[in-house]
Amino acid sequence: MQTASNETQGTASGGRALVVDAVTHRYGSSTAVENINLDIRAGELVALLGPSGCGKTTLLRIIAGFIRQTEGRIILGDEVVDDLGPNRRRIGIVFQNYALFPHLSIAENVAYGPAAQGIGKAEREAETKRLLELVKLGHLADRLPRQLSGGQQQRVALARALAIKPRILLLDEPFAALDKNLRLDMQIEIKRLQRLSGITTVMVTHDQEEALSMADRVAVLSQGRLEQFAAPTQIYDRPDSLFVNTFVGTANQLSGQVLASDGDMATIRLDAGAELRARSPGGVLASGQRCTVCLRPEHLEMTDDPAGFAAVVEMGLPLGATVVHEVRGADGAGIKVSEPRRAGTALRATGTPVRVRPLSPDLATAYPA
Amino acid sequence: MRRDWEAFSFHLAIGVIAVLALILLVAPTAIVLIVSFTSGFSLRFPPPGYSLRWYVALWDAWQLHFAAMNSLKVAAWATFLSVVLGTLAGLGISRSSRLSAKLMDGLFMSPLILPALAFGLSSLMFFSALGLPVSPLTLIIGHTVVCVPYVVRNTVAALSQLDPTLLECSASLGAGKVYTFRRITLPLIRPGILAGGFIAFMSSFDNVPVSLFLRDAATDMLPIRMWQDLEGKLDVTIAALSGVLIVFTIALIMVMERFTGLSRRLA
Ligand SMILES: Nc1ncnc2c1ncn2[C@@H]1O[C@H](COP(=O)(O)OP(=O)(O)OP(=O)(O)O)[C@@H](O)[C@H]1O
Ligand SMILES: [Mg+2]
């Protein structure tokens, strides 16, 4: 499904569509975005994920050309576009509030880009018709934007952005204004259209589920810095930093001390007792150093194995397909353990002593404390 | 019970005040309209009988026609210049957040606050210092200065309601600045500009103080003519003329309301 159709002229399939090269942006003296490097392949859907204020919108606006970065370059295809204004970059944008032109009909909105570029009336109308069919709004061509629902408005905004045959598509918080059911529909719809047209897409979101479910790769930002840029499974299973590990999904944080460090694995003595092997991204841990070990609830199991660390069950919560036990370690740390629930098995009673261990060593990750 | 009574007396008080205000606003207009249909020779209210004679007299009052034409011409020119200059000024002021823009804003607004008589006198002195005799031109310039604030104010207000992402969106779709202005900015602020132009027209049409100083002897202006006629002989024709003006204004307001939502803009 990575074939580029006529939508993505100028970006060879599989080649680079967009490079963000060492981009830094400062508003006055405060740094909003710092030394970001992204290399985005043609046809990819990339999500920029991060908490509020981390610089997602700033980065998107730099790519679009609305603000000029303080340092670094933006490269579209093979072309450095830093000196091109937003109207000459041929980038399609769907704004968070859709920004449909209120005085123009749906068809006129979609035809706006081609009209601005001086494309003839007949060709413009045919293209508008095709795009409105594509987003299933052909029957509403003559309405005004305010006569449409939120989801319909978003589809118009998408069709309008696609009408300029953009080199890439940018989406700013595309689903934030939609209610929950509609959001899922639109996520599927946009993913479908993106696959169908093969257009390279960058999407801003602060919703990790949305990022993980829709994107081919996720760029996690924190305080203007790029924490990790990788496939969703990689982000989830092999996070590079404590921030990514705790921001994406949930993680138990246990403190301990490094006993030995060999390359990107380390042996750690937990304060809760027990030793374990853990991944050490970048191999930055030195022996003797204090560290934080992150373990996802579903990467833990309760066993009789004496190698696990001792804990006492505090509470069990059956959550349909899984059961989550809250246990307390010897050092007083609360830990969540999530296991598949088999029908008929009873919850472990409060006060039951158990041993807890990771399912496999590379699912534990240690970071400098 | 007690609460009901309080609510009732509150609403009663508000109602009474509202009715009084309405009477104060509407009654004079109504009285002029009624008197203009008098069959007598005086402005006495209530009239002794009714007829259309003063409207017939108005038909033949060439001096008033002449003055009305002058006033209309000056108001049309002043409105045209105010709309062009005021819109440009409004665009400049609202695009910039610099101190100079704020100062300019204040400057454009000052004719609204300065006593118009003082402005009339000072511009008369200014024009004569320049060696320009009073003429229809000086009159139009003077009217434009006092009318331009209405257009500036309405344009700035309309622009501040314009969502800046619409302009960014237009740019991202490949539109240059001029194209964006023509297809997005202008259509969206046009009702505001028209509302400003309408008020400018009305305020030029019944402006007395500036006209007093800046017209030449040959350029008779309607409000001044009306005052002089009333002063001399309490002429009932003026009441008929007032009736015509009132009807004319109401019709114009209704047209503007239809196209620009005038009342919302003035609120
Ligand atoms: N025009 C501006 N002037 C000064 N500082 C700004 C400006 N816009 C953003 N910032 C600052 O830059 C940082 C990044 O802002 P940005 O809007 O990119 O965050 P974001 O990741 O989009 O957040 P959110 O999820 O809340 O939209 C923030 O600290 C913000 O306060
Ligand atoms: Mg944002």
UniProtKB/TrEMBL annotation, chain B:
> How does it sit in the bilayer?
Multi-pass membrane protein
- Does the record bear Hydrolase in its keywords? no
Q: Which InterPro entries match?
A: MetI-like, MetI-like_sf
One Gene Ontology CC term in the entry: plasma membrane
Give me any GO biological process, just one: transmembrane transport
Q: Which family does it belong to?
A: Belongs to the binding-protein-dependent transport system permease family.
Location of the protein in the cell: Cell inner membrane; Cell membrane
Give the principal location in a single coarse category. membrane
Keywords attached to this Swiss-Prot or TrEMBL record, sorted alphabetically, are: Cell inner membrane, Cell membrane, Membrane, Transmembrane, Transmembrane helix, Transport
Protein's name in the database:
ABC transporter permease
